[in-house]
Prior knowledge:
The chain has 3 helices and 3 strands; from the N terminus they run βαβαβα. The chain is of the alpha+beta class. It has a single domain (3-67), classed as 2-Layer Sandwich (Alpha-Beta Plaits). A 3-stranded antiparallel sheet has the order 1-3-2.
Amino acid sequence: MALVELARFDTRIEADLARLHLLSEGIDAILFDAEMNSFGWGPMMPVRLMVLDQDRELAERLLAEDSA
């Protein structure tokens, strides 16, 4: 099972909200580069939201619905 990048966020807060939404729907998700972003790198080091490849399509739909 491979992890794939689902989305990038400028802040850890935005990324965590998306991660928590996916978790509430039963999709495991983790954040990459959250610590680097917290040191003030901001948009230069976005936080990456990662999911399993098999969950990608559903996760994309859930995030699209959430942003609408």
